[in-house]
Protein: beta-aspartyl-peptidase
Organism: Eleusine coracana subsp. coracana
Amino acid sequence: MGWALALHGGAGDIPRSLPAELRDRRLATLRRCLDIGTAALRDGRPALDVVELVVRELEDCPYFNAGKGSVLTSDSTVEMEACVMEGATLRCGAVSGLSTVVNAVSLARRVMENTPHIYLAFEGAEAFARNQGLETKDPSHFITEHNIERLRQAKEANRVQIDYTQPMTKKPGMDPPADDNSQIGTVGCVAIDAAGNLATATSTGGLVNKMPGRIGDTPLVGAGTYANAFCAVSATGKGESIIRHTVSRDVAAMMEHRPGMTLHDAAARVVGATPRGDVGLVAVSASGEVCMVYNTTGMFRACATEDGHAEVGIWTDDGHSVSIGL
Ligand code: ASP
């Protein structure tokens, strides 16, 4: 057994018509993040540091729905959320309702390490970020043109949606918006380091056109994010489905209570029990098994293991091996 990691940039109804330029930018970011995570694991960094490092990179990239690039609430505001968890200790930290914190994942880690609590939200979380000296920016920093357009589309169709929901059927007399295919997604990373420590981190802007105050699965320990001594899981997709099915904890519980079950079988069972089109996840087990499972059209994803396997993909038939700066 050696180190391993997997990351995602969101699951959903990702259209095959995604313009090559947008697809390639996101694939390049996934590859870059895979390289960063791989290099850190090779350097002997702990899994918790690695998942935070990778998720920070993804948060800083405007092509994914987390940090800069977060989708907008129905009030055209950003409310970011994140969670981190360490498998061996079950220590975890979570944050919600952030509008100025540049890296929500790092604030979640500070909550875990520097408070007696697990979960801080809204004003209290913002005040704690300042108290900890974390970088903050004006809320306008996080709002991209793409997300203003995504919100416009969602409002026009009167729906709350994950980023990858295909646009509604064209309304009579109305042209489809120019950037229909500009979908972006929630981010997450799971890792096991050379010492066998498991960790997970997930970060998101949530759903397009969500009600202000809505909290999704990402920061809810056991729903979008969970790690124990058996595996680490980060989920993406429709938060309400992920919460109902306690997706991440269910995978970990199967690994815990059904000795001999592979991680892939556990993840496939849990995801298979959720409504089709709603859920994806990445996970790593204590034995170094990696899996990336989804019941959506696609999931932006990447993984690497110490034995040299590395893969990046979006749809089911395009997962391809990549070299990881050996
Ligand atoms: N799970 C996220 C949420 O519901 C959205 C996503 O994964 O894209 O907030």
Remarks:
- Residues 10, 65, 162-163, 185-186, 204, 206-207, 216-218, 224, 236-239, 242 surround aspartic acid (CB under 6 Å).
- The CA atoms of residues 284 and 290 lie 4 Å apart.
- The chain has eight helices and 13 strands.
- The longest helix spans residues 20-42.
